[in-house]
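task queued by scheduler; priority normal; single chain, no ligands, no partner chains; default sampling; output format set to structure tokens
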Amino acid sequence: MMIDANRSWLLVVDIQEKLVAAVHQADQFVENCAWLVELAAMVGVPIVFSEQYPKGLGHTLPRLTDLAPAAQVVEKVHFSCLSANCLPSELLSQRKQVIICGMESHVCVLQTTLGLINEGKEVYVVADVVSSRTTHDIQLALARMQQAGAVIVSREMVLFEWLRQAGTPQFKAVSARFLQATRPAV
């Protein structure tokens, strides 16, 4: 099964002001997330940001929300977005594929992923855009999500599956923005 831009949406879990500094390689993690959010916005894939108890933990990093001003922001106190019943019903009913990234891998991302799988969704966890405080927890979470039926992917896998073909104006714009800047000159 391939990721389809017309059937998928991006869920960015809890990348919040007071939490992000504690995760493994926080700066790179945030940059990877910004890359994915900007890509989704460019190709027209709906984006949802979840926030765990924002009153105490702050809001989603402006670095991310500024890239997707049309994105929905939902609040929760449950670790799982499904248990919190905060996800937009139109996306849940109309789009079968969920691309998920965020933190912490072994808590909110894991529990949300398990809930989405239980609801019959095709869940794609972007391995280079999830984080926790320890690499051990990241590895265990990815393994458990995969065992439960999630597909583990990279940012570039998502990009190429959303685009499907080279040579289009969209591919040229995306390639110039996301691929040529990240590849060494040959």
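post-processing summary
- The domain at 8-179 is CATH 3.40.50.850 (Rossmann fold).
- Residues 10 and 99 are 5 Å apart (CA to CA).
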